[in-house]
Amino acid sequence: MKKPTKSFKAEMNLPKLIEQFGDNDKCRARLTQLRWPNGVTCPRCESKSISQVIERNQHDCNCCRYQFSATSGTIFHDTHLPLSKWFLAIYLMTEAKKGVSALQMKRTLDIAYQTAWHLCHRIRAAMREINAELLRGVVEVDETYVGGKVRGMGRGYKGNKAIAIGAVQRAGKIRLQVIEHADKATLHQFIHDNTAPDTEAIYTDELPAYWGIEDADTKHRVVRHSIEEWVVGDVHTNGIESVWSLLKRSIIGSYHRVSIKHLDAYLDELEHRFNNRKNEYIFRDTLTKLVNAAKLPYQELIKAA
Ligand SMILES: [Zn+2]
Question: Which residues make up the environment of ion ligand 1, defined by Cβ < 5 Å?
Answer without folding.
Answer: 42, 44-45, 47, 61, 63-64, 66
